[in-house]
Amino acid sequence: MLFSVAPTIIAQASPPERISEISGLLTVIRQLFMGIGAQMVTTLLAADIVRRGDEVYPSPFAYDLTVAVIAALCFAAVLTAFALPRQHPTEREA
Question: What pTM was computed for the model?
Answer without folding.
Answer: 0.73
